[in-house]
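Input record (Table S2, row 283):
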Amino acid sequence: MPEGDILRRTASTLDRALSGHQLVAAELRWPSAAGIDLVGRTVVGTHAYGKHLFTRFDDGRTLHTHLRMEGSWSLEPTREPAPGVRAGPRGRARGAFVRAVLTTADWTAVGHRVGMLDVVPTRDDQSLIAHLGPDVLADDFEIAGLPEALERYRRVAERGVAVGEVLLDQTVLAGIGTIYMAESLYARRIWPWTPGADVADPASLMMTARVLMQRSVQAQEGGGPSPWTDRQAHGRSGEPCRRCATPIAVGDIGQPPRQRPAFYCPTCQAAPTRSDRGVRGKT
Ligand SMILES: [Zn+2]
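Output record (zinc ion complex):
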């Protein structure tokens, strides 16, 4: 599932390609949006919040998409139309899983397998994410978002929820999925099933997730090495831990049927013992 880093990158790619340009063709292949015509509209901008994407138009409407499990947006050059023929999408834009096509004179943006799509008044578009916690990749996260995220973390953790599950909770912190849950817990040597309330420094944990995701965004934008090859825990079950050589393990986190995989090193991220908790309780 795409996480906040991918969404950030997608938003900036679409923003650079489409903003300020008029749509010469557009198609939304989604039941509730089927009759909506965006042709002639100028794209104002695209931005991401957590795992949500917002593309705003000059008529006060916003296209809201969520990539869910396997959605993506891609760009391809728009074919030079024959005289008298409207520019239209080609190539991948004709696939069975295409849900949205936005075409300007230069670029065609294609939304594949998006898990959610709607067109809403721009003035209301932020109400769609009002329930979410602060975006972990927001520019001002450290100053504006972190205190609120910590308060939301505390409210969820005091119900006895495991730290891995708290990190995945988008109402606490928006943008983290199973990859950065696993990677940040590995970096901080925290067992994913540790009760959230027992984690000594959740602020550092959140900042670790943010830094790892920022690195991923920068690597993608700079055309650097793929962040996927850099993973320490996620997707590496059975492979040796890069710190201690113990095989990486995987277990379920969260309540069925919504459990998700949590990859971890059983040695570096050992379950806290009773004495650990006793010591922590006295401090
Ligand atoms: Zn290890």
